Amino acid sequence: MAWDFETDAEYQAKLDWADTFVRDEVEPLDHIWEHQQFVPLDGARRKAIDPLKDQVRKQGLWATHLGPELGGQGYGALELALLNEILGRSSWAPIVFGCQAPDTGNAEIIAHYGTEAQKERYLQPLLNGELFSTYSMTEPQAGADPAQFTTRAVKDGDHWIIDGWKYFSSNARTASFLIVMAVTNPDVSVYKGMSMFLVPADTPGIDIVRNVGLYGEAMNDGTHALIHYDGVRVPEEAMLGGEGQAFAVAQTRLGGGRIHHAMRTIGLAQKALDMMCERALSRETSGSRLADKQFVQGYIADSYAQLAQFRLFVLHTAWKIDKYNDYKKVRKDIATAKVIMPTVLHDIAWRAMQVHGALGVTNELPLFQMIHGAAVMGLADGPTEVHKTTVAKQVLRDYKPNDDLWPSEWIPKKQEAAKAKFAEYLELEVGNL
């Protein structure tokens, strides 16, 4: 029986290095080049960040989500989870370590489904951290429901012509290419009638109508594009994974992406808890420290318990991914982690904000940004409510209905069965009276 909560010494040494490196070298980037993580490097940023990437490579921690055949280390999901906890504290850290969303998922599906020519053109530069990509799936009228998608790709000789609208296509403004999901056969099920295309960002007909921002960002200065594909012509070889295979491709991408988000959220929630505890020990009111107030102690205890449970669940899910090497077999647990994630981050960041008082709601601390991030996590890669129904359906598969009038745990029936099972002993007991 194998059951161990320790990390082997060699990898723990790498985690310790990463922890110090992120705090000392990477987190400062968040304060001088905010919101520029997905802008291609040039000038001063390249001079500052390229050497950091080189240090990560020397430590064998570059692109750890990928196997050795793709330039990664093949550590697996569990070790990636332990690393991502550290990276989750900083917006720049995933970039510096070559494992940022959405590029990780996009690289994964190109690696699985791309042709050799596609891998050479798109995958290798993506793995090298020299360009960014966009996953263009959601549509404004449909949200995350692919059954409502209307963007079409129509065959025209040896080309496909894409027409339609896509919404929340993150990083499109700085991406070198887009992965576009479109209906190629409207006469069959949506699960068989959609295909994906690799589309260079400079292809004529791609019109970024608006760059939608999150709350607090300037209008039309965000990173989530509303795109009009207006007669976008791509060759046959632009199709990724074959005609009608979009759903198979998407599930490969989204399963990994969801659990990676959960891994990084552990680190962000831990940062909020750290801030809360520091503040509680540092401030006094009404004659004693905040840390001595029972209300604040309750905040700390609830936050610790919530985060510990979430972390263990994510690590267990990562262990299952390594064990089965099949996202479908871990679908229930990935969906559950996705459901839990926004609540954990919201609750801990909210309590930390309360402990910091008025300062907590200002833009001089990152707490309200974390709360807003929790709301985003509740929608990214599918709404929480959709994942709850997935979890419920998966759980119910392990049960069967009871055809009896009474539930199987009905006590009168259990009592009768118990009496029948031990009848000889009961008779002996009566006989001895």
Strand arrangement, largest sheet?
Answer: 1-4-5-8
Q: What's the rounded overall pLDDT mean?
A: 92
What name does the CATH topology of the largest domain carry?
Answer: Butyryl-CoA Dehydrogenase, subunit A, domain 3
Question: What gap, in angstroms, lies between the N and C termini?
Answer: 48 Å
Fourth-tier CATH superfamily name of the largest domain: Butyryl-CoA Dehydrogenase, subunit A, domain 3
Count all strands and give the number. Answer: 10
Strand residues, percent? 5-15%
Report the sheet with the most strands, covering strand number, pairing sense and barrel closure: 4 strands, mixed
CATH architecture of the largest domain: Up-down Bundle
What proportion of the residues is helical, as a percent range?
40-55%
What is the count of structural domains?
4
Overview of this protein structure:
The chain has 433 residues and is α+β, with helices and mostly antiparallel strands. The protein has four domains: 9-100, Butyryl-Coa Dehydrogenase, subunit A, domain 1; 133-240, Butyryl-CoA Dehydrogenase, subunit A, domain 2 (Beta Barrel), CATH 2.40.110; 248-396, Butyryl-CoA Dehydrogenase, subunit A, domain 3; 403-433, no CATH class. It contains 14 helices and ten strands. The chain has helices at residues 9-26, 29-32, 43-58, 77-87, 93-96, 103-113, 116-127, 246-282, 294-324, 331-355, 367-377, 384-396, 411-421, 423-431; strands spanning 133-136, 152-156, 159-170, 177-183, 194-200, 206-212, 224-235, 239-240, 284-285, 288-289. The strands form three sheets. It has a four-stranded mixed β-sheet, with helices on one face. A hairpin with a 2-residue loop joins β2 and β3. α6 (103-113) runs antiparallel to α7 and α10 (331-355) crosses α12 (384-396). 39% of the residues are buried. The mean pLDDT is 92.
